[in-house]
Write a structure and sequence with these properties.
The protein has 326 residues and is of the alpha/beta class. It contains 15 helices and six strands. Strand 2 and strand 3 form a beta hairpin. It is globular, with a radius of gyration of 20 Å.
Length: 326
């Protein structure tokens, strides 16, 4: 972790800007496997070459794609945006605000991304979006045309190390670029924190939780393998309470098996509600979940290990809490 004094100031560094004071500008978390025992100052010295050369790396990246971006970095990811200056700076600010909120709750265990290795890319239109998707398909050896077709039809595509967002489609939906970039940023962070072992319901719920921490009302959701056009109520807490009254919210053990394929909207909202409850009920326990998932524990066992309560007791408490529209 970074020293506490280094985290008190926001860190957003745009292209062509000089890195600020070393105590603030360390834009990454030391990997415990390869950086153990190194002092903060030494870690910063190790970063100096990357910070100095980052502009050249950005330029090489743009030449390869034949696209132009506004580039920046935060502590936990790099951003490459084809958007207005106001949108770009707002989204960078949102990433920093989310990081601060999670750190203040002791949940920086979810913030394992780093600039130059984790990326949020915003493409302005279909042409640039498809160009980036084709590059991903080539790099990852994806030869399934159905994958490319579904990804092209969506507003974004994400993985453990990066997310690509189509700005014009987000604008058409009226949801605002901030919502989807925060959702995607959080999605990427929890995958990295759990070493890609967090279950899909939790990744989805955590992404929506983070969106609601910044904007209060979540708007975004993920799909898998096929389109799933949904329209959500403005108040997700009330929607979950209604689902509970009408018997449309499955037991946790069933929810934990969901894979996002054709999932009904109330179950998306339930994922958010359960994760939000776990976050609010006991943040220190919530902070332990990425490591539990990384161990390979399934959802129920991971939650019981982190919280020290039987799953049935936690679920009963959630049903009372969520039933009140919280």
């Amino acid at each position: 972790r970074l020293p506490s004094e280094a985290l008190e100031k926001p860190y957003v560094l745009f292209e062509n800007e000089e890195p600020p004071d070393p105590s603030v500008s360390l834009g990454w978390l030391a990997c415990p496997d390869c950086k153990r025992g190194l002092e903060f100052k030494q870690r910063f010295e190790d970063e100096r070459p990357r910070l100095k050369e980052r502009g050249k790396l950005y330029q090489e990246h743009e030449r390869e794609l034949k696209l132009t971006f506004v580039d920046f970095e935060t502590r936990y990811a790099s951003g490459h945006f084809q958007a207005t200056p106001q949108e770009t700076r707002e989204c960078a600010k949102f990433f920093e605000q989310l990081g601060k909120q999670l750190r203040e709750k002791g949940c920086d265990t979810y913030l394992k991304g780093r600039p130059a290795t984790h990326h949020v890319i915003v493409c302005e239109n279909e042409k640039s979006y498809k160009a980036y998707l084709s590059r991903i398909a080539e790099a990852e050896g994806k030869d399934d045309p159905n994958w490319l077709e579904l990804a092209a039809q969506s507003s974004s595509f994400g993985s453990r190390n990066g997310v690509v967002i189509r700005r014009d489609r987000v604008a058409q939906a009226g949801s605002g670029l901030g919502h989807i970039t925060v959702f995607a940023f959080a999605n990427m962070q929890v995958r990295e924190a759990s070493r890609s072992k967090a279950p899909k319901w939790f990744i989805e719920g955590f992404s929506s939780l983070c969106e609601s921490l910044i904007f209060e009302t979540p708007w975004c959701y993920s799909v898998a393998y096929e389109k799933n056009q949904l329209s959500f109520d403005a108040d997700w807490a009330k929607a979950v309470a209604k689902g509970l009254r009408e018997g449309r919210t499955p037991m946790w053990e069933i929810l934990f098996t969901r894979d996002l394929i054709s999932m009904p909207q109330v179950e998306y909202q339930q994922c958010w509600s359960v994760v939000r409850y776990l976050y609010k009920f006991d943040a220190p326990a919530f902070a332990k979940l990425p490591a539990c998932f990384a161990e390979g524990l399934e959802s129920g066992k991971a939650i019981e290990k982190a919280y020290g309560y039987p799953l049935a007791k936690l679920e009963a408490s959630w049903r009372i809490w969520a039933g009140q529209g919280k």
